[in-house]
Amino acid sequence: xxxxxxxxxxxxxxxxxxxxxKKISAFTxxxxxxxxxxxxxxxxxxxxxxxxxxxxxxxxxxMGDAATFHGYAPxxxxxxxxxxxxxSDYRKRGVDIDIDEIFISDGAKSDSGNIQELFGMxxxxxxxxxxxxxxxDSNAMSGRCGNYIKSEQRWSDIVYLPTTAENNFVPELPQxxxxxxxxxxxxxxxxxxxxxxxxxxWVDYAIRKNALIIYDAAYEAYISDDDVPHSIYECTGAKSCxxxxxxxxxxxxxxxxxxxxxxxxxxxxxxKTSLHDMWARRHDxxxxxxxxxxxxxxxxxxxxxxxxxxKEQIAYYxxxxxxxxxxxxKAGYDVYGGINxxxxxxxxxxxxxxxxxxxxxxxxxxxxxxxxxxxxxxGEGYFRLTAFGTFENTKKAIERIVG
Length: 403
Ligand code: PLP
Prior knowledge:
About 35% of the residues lie in helices and about 15% in strands. It has about 400 residues and is of the alpha/beta class. A seven-stranded mixed beta sheet has the order 2-10-9-8-7-3-6, with helices on both faces. The longest helix has 27 residues, at about 305-330. The chain binds pyridoxal-5'-phosphate. Pyridoxal-5'-phosphate binds near residues 108, 112, 216 and 249. Pyridoxal-5'-phosphate (PLP) binds next to α5.
């Protein structure tokens, strides 16, 4: 008789966004005429930029001609894309990442969920709290998080690094030494980030403790402050202790297109074992590559016109972010984020729990946001709004909240 992975039974409820979707559909069934504005899920609303669409069309045509048809992609991804990434995302910022250290994938969710496969079960995992739930959930599925303590909304064996208004969203170095540290900067959900010297402290700490940092930079394109690093490799020594994960979802609207990459520097070694070789072996065995058409789309992101067009989109979303920030601040809310990231993080009013505020906004204002507690224990009492809606809806939503 077969058995199942019993770790799944320890994981609480369903994924945060399924719970939200259920609440919305119950509400809209009862109130079919309600004009519900969704500023909850982190999905984009603007169409793919023209330069990228043109590149995809061209690639589609190539696939229809025997002379230019492409079958399986090379294991790490096409060189044209890895070169563009190495040049534009790294060399231009003074960071030397070899094209063979870049692994193209179908997105940052897969990579950030799969990367834990490389590590032993005994590793102690640390996450900033609150954070994108995939890091904890994927480790929990592998049985690396101990037991879920429902009353405290936390796992027994995870080291949580609170990032809240109390510490100005700068996590403190932990008392208990972790082996693997997930940092997501700019952060989802708080929309806050670390300056270069603050990130350097984490890199120095990881080197001192022989720990590894998994750095999710999915929102790098939204950074506007000069002293905020775009890559962890801008910090000294990071190539020996950090893996970086990136996505095309939020900078170029690829949430439905699917493309991302992970950088595993060759110099990261666990004893004599190269993590680069392990990840290459895993990629080789379990992944047959992102589609040619999509990798061409990714290449177009780095073209001159592609860059100009995506910057316009990012500016569009960041205009929404400032509408939300300013509107809520004027209305007396404590508001964070929204400057180097498309997320606005607010303190719930009147000591409401995150879910109470969710219900209030949905029922009274017909607005959907995301309860902070869904992102970790320190998210309780906070709430996330995203800047990914249309400008019109964002404005309307804030007028409703403020009014
Ligand atoms: N990493 C973070 C921090 C995210 O917030 C998200 C999506 O919301 C992802 C990764 C997923 O990225 P992708 O669409 O490339 O899978």
